[in-house]
Amino acid sequence: MSVSAFLTDPTLCIGCKACEVACKEWNGLPQDGLEWSGFSYDNTRRLGASTWRHVLFLEQPRALGPQIAAAEDPFRWVFLSDVCKHCENAGCLDACPTGAIVRTEFDSVFVQPDVCNGCGYCVVSCPFGVIDRRPDDGRAFKCTFCYDRQKAGLVPACAKTCPTESIKFGTIEEMEQRAEARVAELRERGYSDAHAYNAADTSVGRTHALFILLGEPEAYNFPPAPDAPAVHLRSAWTMALVSAAVGFLILCLAFLR
Amino acid sequence: MPGLGTSFGRGGSTTAPGDLVNADAILIMGSNMAENHPVGFQWVIEARERGAKVIHVDPRFSRTSAMADQWLPLRAGSDAIFLGALIRYVIEKHREFREYLVHYTNASVIIADEFRDTEELDGVFSGWNPETKSYNPASWLYRGAAPSDDVPPDLSHYESDPTLEHPRCVFQLLKKHFARYTPELVEAACGIPQNAFVRAAETFTAASGPERTAAVVYSVGWTQHSNGVQVIRAAAILQMLLGNVGRPGGGILALRGHASIQGSTDIPTLYDLLPGYLPMPAFGPGSRSLADYVSRHRTRTGWWANFDKYIVSLLRAYYGEAATAANDFGFGWLPRISADHSHQGYWLDMNEGRMEGLFVLGQNPAVGGPNARLERKALAKLKWLVVRDLVETETAAFWYDSPEVRRGELRPEEIATEIFFFPAAGHAEKDGCFTNTQRLLQWHEKAVDPPADARSETWFICHLGRRLKEKALRDPRPRNAGLAALTWDYALEGEHTEPRAEEILAEINGFRTSDRLPISSYTDLAADGSTACGCWIYSGVYPGPGQNRARERNARDAHGHGWGFAWPSDRRILYNRASARPDGSPWSERKKLVWWDDAAHSWTGLDTPDFVASKRPDYRPAPDATGDAALAGDKPFILHPDGLGWLWVPSGLKDGPLPTHYEPHESPVRNPLYSTQQTNPPADAKRGPENAYAESPDPRFPYVLTTYRLTEHHTAGGMSRTLPHLAELQPEMFCEISPQLAAECDVRHGEWVTVVTPRGFVEARAMVTPRMRQLRIHGRIVHQVGLPYHWGFRGLVKGDAANDLVSISEEPNVRIMETKGLLCNLVRGRGGEGPAALRRFRSFLERPR
Amino acid sequence: MSREANPRSESRLDAIREEATRTGHVAGSGLAASASPTPSSSPAAGYYGLPLLKAPVWTWEVPLYFFAGGVSGASTAIALAARIAGRAPDLELAALWIALIAALICPVLLIADLGRPSRFLNMLRVFKRQSPMSVGAWTLAGFTGVVIVAVVADEAMRAGLAPAFTGGVTWAAEILGAALGLVLLSYTAVLLGVTAIPVWSENRRLLPTHFVASGIGSASALLELFGFLVPATQMVGFIVSAWETLVGASIELRARAVDEPLRRGRSGWAARAGGTLAGPVALLLRIFEGSSPGGRELAAACFLAGALITRYAWLWAGRASSANPRALFDLQRQ
Ligand SMILES: Nc1nc2c(c(=O)[nH]1)N[C@H]1C(S)=C(S)[C@@H](COP(=O)(O)OP(=O)(O)OC[C@H]3O[C@@H](n4cnc5c(=O)[nH]c(N)nc54)[C@H](O)[C@@H]3O)O[C@H]1N2
Ligand SMILES: Nc1nc2c(c(=O)[nH]1)N[C@H]1C(S)=C(S)[C@@H](COP(=O)(O)OP(=O)(O)OC[C@H]3O[C@@H](n4cnc5c(=O)[nH]c(N)nc54)[C@H](O)[C@@H]3O)O[C@H]1N2
Ligand code: SF4
Ligand code: SF4
Ligand code: SF4
Ligand code: SF4
Ligand code: SF4
Ligand SMILES: [Mo]
Prior knowledge:
The structure holds 3 protein chains of 3 kinds. By secondary structure, chain A is of the alpha+beta class. Chain A contains 6 helices and 11 strands. Chain A is globular, with a radius of gyration of 21 Å. The termini of chain A are far apart. The mean pLDDT of chain A is about 95. Chain B is globular and about 75 Å long. In chain B, helix 5 (about 80-90) packs across helix 10 (about 195-205) and helix 16 packs across helix 18 (about 370-380). By secondary structure, chain B is of the alpha/beta class. Helices cover about 25% and strands about 15% of the residues of chain B. Chain B has 26 helices and 29 strands. By secondary structure, chain C is mostly helical. Helix content of chain C is about 70%, strand content about 0%. Chain C starts with 6 loop residues before the first helix and ends with a helix. The chains are: A alpha+beta, B alpha/beta, C mainly alpha. At the A-C interface, strand 2, helix 2, strand 7 and helix 6 of A face helix 3, helix 5, helix 6, helix 8 and helix 9 of C. Strand 3 (about 70) of chain A pairs parallel with strand 3 of chain B, so a sheet runs across the interface. The complex binds ligand MGD (2 copies), iron/sulfur cluster (SF4) (5 copies) and molybdenum atom. One iron/sulfur cluster binds near residues 37, 38, 39 and 259 of chain B.
């Protein structure tokens, strides 16, 4: 089994949301509310328990590389398809008390729906705000990396559907290389703010969803320097046990006095 | 399609989406390809990645604009000026592809001396009859061609000047005609700054020539105008001037709509055509007998010299053994056109109570039809209505659930219309065939059985026909003779007695009547009744028993041969003879497609040659030759009687031999070119109390309104507003306006606004966005309002139908309504419910003009 | 079509339109306000100001569980301290009973909060060191068992049933119970601190001290309310409310942006109210009213209320913190 990854490139994304719909169709997900957001054309707003792929729509007063969009004030409309990052050090996986979240042979992070008891701890442990609990069902859900499809040798539904290959799928090494090559190419073509978003340098480690971004990650609601919560385990436990010990000492003192 | 049909010979896209990868520049205009043809748009992206420049000209910054290299915002309805200016730019800067132009188009042909241009007659061409509001096109003919009412003009012999200097040659007339289409005019009338225009013009023309090609992509942003055909004509002229037709990466990609919308003009759902673009006979002298009819439509030279073979074979397919030479092959049984029976025409008839019943099969006019308010009310005047659909559409539910019912205009208990709703099988629930944008027939197989009582269209039509025929056989009145004679012997199979779709395809393909063996090409068709063929251009799709080429799924090459079947004869790029020089060698190595192989004595190449394969490039016809033999070996446009591409259309159009600019029926400005001719002269606005228009300009309606689609929904919404995964993506009707217009109307982002036109009002959420730009038109600021038209009063997400605002109007050649250039006003707040809202609307109209 | 009813805005509209026509743009006053800006995505606002992180899904049961668990765990520690000192056997037994009752409430609250309550036992499917919740679940399970043993053994011993044996068991159970109780008391701070929620995560060093102090203080205050107004509980009361005062002061004085939810909004008010009740109010009551009748009970009640409120405050602060992408950006850009 090869270790696979996504690379998503907004300069190729036409914002058709086919990936979002394909994901819902393949995974039988319910709709996520029929409410108009007014956030450009994005009415699904964010990833969640029932939206495992989400396409962002950014209207920004900046030029898109060499694009000429009317004469005066610069303007661009950027689309990016977001998804669970399938972190090497996954906050959700570490946090899960039931072992419902496991790592698969594709190195992806998979929630076993028959094990999850809806404790909600993964929800606050994902530094990317991906996984969530579905209110009616009570369990936590997120992208499965199309485990079932990959198991059968198929490309994930979202990548398969993408008409423009904005979502690329392949081995993680290949995707990492392509990300760098693409950034270099884009910069050469005048996309001066293109860069690869990759958490590899942070405590999250390598991720299986790589992105090319135009401009700051903040505008995409991507954490600029994500942290895997588990790195704080040692310090927090030390503090807890020290506090408890001190507390007990104080009690002993109080009673012995 | 007459825009392309008259220019090149066939009313179909000259190229395929996949061929766009070969383009060096792509002009997308009047199309939002990324949103409405997202899968095809991958080729645009691919071309861009390979270095092609993509130019998008559109009133709005859409998802297509977001992917383009250049976006030029223009005022809706000013396309002809933009394209005219490109034409002028090419001529002015000598960017034309001379050799191509001289050999392959009618640029050098001398035109009749009687011809007068709009530039001389202030907006009309010679031949205009103000009484009948129509043209006599006699003066548009080539010099020396004799006009006749009884036969098509003979255009095979003409005077020409290969130097293109003769003042009456097409090229010079063209040059004069477009002389006023300057960058300054573009700036003033379209709102596009001159420098932006020049940059786009440079980009596009620089990508044309022997080594390069540029493509034009359009869709309904061009067609749904009262001068839509002329706009497409302008694009055709541009592409011919630059030598971009028939070559890889060139051409005009007419993006079609629904799956098989191309199929539904090939085998038409239109009232004035028979399959294969044979004209429907009309009452009158031209259709008294088959001979009459044939003589009017068969040309002496060019491919249409075969006209008789196609109509006779069609009649043989219709009437089988009952069609004999003695009875004109049943020609007399064909219905005749008596009036305008287009959508626009019959709906007005219905509204006036002149129609009894209506079948609505896979259409939702209560949302998608122009002046939908009028159309819904007209439905209530029918005696019966049959709706076949996947869901109970607004059209089926108008009588109890429409805004008219809520506003008290219609009362269910008073509606006498008897309504039959039939559940239809969707495309995955039946076998069948789509003909898509690139004229590609693709077979689809049934994946699941339709649920419950849902049945396919073929089932419905087949059994309806069977029952009608039984009735006709019992009733010997002469009017039933045609029905009684109709062959209707489809084999029925299975539990639901379904006909076999493939049997129908075989009938369409054509067969020898003697042994019912399929023919392999339309060149096998004959006029003596020995062949039958349902649609001549499709011949070859079913070349042998059990051999369905539409089902092929193994593409052998980049043009997709081996995947489906493109009519005619699996040609992927039409007129591809033009990809070679007159001598038969490719214009360039980079752009080679089809060429003459002297050793093999045949045309060959990467595509099926759109040419008689054995006709040598240096072939010269005898003076009295007829048919295709009358065309020389360097005449690529073989359906035209002269084998040329028509910069100039000597016959076949109702509104002039050259395109020119007319304003939409409603415009914020006067026509900058003609003081007395505001709109396309023969375009009938079909004015009426319920189909009223704003003045041009009109202080009550200061803003330009245009309507369009969103990726997330499909047309009238029956197939998307009912599906949760699509409904959630665009849950509410909104209108797009610029921040400046929002300021002017005191509207905040997200607030409700009411959009008003003389026909109606709809409410929508205000989407205030810099994607909409205010334009400076003739020194004034003009604002545009954009409105998607997908919502209706049923489904998971509901909203007002934009078509309540649109008028029933028409383009004279194809009778399409003008949905892309209207006037409106914008009022803060919701439209309101009940009769009070209607009263407010009426008082709004009574405001001073 | 409300415009018609308003001739003033109508005439203003005409004026604006006229100006637009004449000059090509509109500069008149009041316009900027009426054309509100379209929401946008930017480095400053994030993606339309939408939350980056997911809000904690936990409901009212969880802070109450934190509270109950704290009381329960701390009570065993008090019981053991009392046993070691050997001075207050009644208090010791009462503390054990409190620990037991509170411990039995805990799973009820936990189960109630689960999205799939029927799968509560899945908590004990695996033991995961990296998951504070797993550690907590196992701790609670073990702790409850041990406390039951401790209560039964202590009661048996007092009833004179095989005193040598039951006494020994009591000792062993109380030592083990206190050890587990101290974990139960403090792990909830780790649970919050080791998450992606900035206000929790950034307070991962402060939270354990706060939870330990307030848990011990609550257990002790409860004992006081049951009448154990012994000097030890008074001393514990002093120390914990002094500590709570310091915790509150540090949040206020450091004035970190990430702590904003502890100072503003609903969660801020709860944090301040709870912190004030458990901190300065309880402290002052003990200093000035400690000897007057009812004074200590009042201090104890204030502390209990404060401790309970701060538990809620921390959950709410977590929600507010998750909703504000700016705080996260600022933190990560430092
Ligand atoms: N997702 C999706 N895809 C579809 C459909 C759908 O409903 N949804 N419908 C299908 C059908 S039936 C069709 S016909 C095609 C239509 O495909 P398109 O022609 O792309 O459809 P529209 O969105 O109606 O209009 C295209 C563009 O024309 C612009 N426009 C409006 N007025 C003017 C004008 O005066 N000049 C110019 N140059 N542009 C103008 C609009 O802003 C819009 O961006 O799409 C097909 N594909
Ligand atoms: N304002 C404005 N109006 C427009 C346009 C515009 O751009 N602006 N565009 C125009 C254009 S290009 C078009 S094509 C029209 C489209 O307008 P319509 O054709 O009226 O709209 P659709 O929603 O496509 O209707 C198709 C119906 O067929 C049903 N259906 C699908 N498959 C089957 C089947 O196999 N059998 C049967 N019986 N039913 C089936 C669907 O459920 C749907 O209700 O709208 C036109 N109207
Ligand atoms: S992005 Fe979040 S949900 Fe996805 S693997 Fe990483 S921590 Fe888990
Ligand atoms: S909610 Fe489910 S998946 Fe998430 S941590 Fe709890 S048990 Fe694991
Ligand atoms: S990989 Fe599968 S589950 Fe994940 S977003 Fe793509 S389609 Fe959805
Ligand atoms: S399918 Fe591809 S192009 Fe469409 S929104 Fe998703 S990533 Fe973008
Ligand atoms: S809906 Fe069908 S026809 Fe339209 S873009 Fe998608 S795949 Fe192509
Ligand atoms: Mo269409």
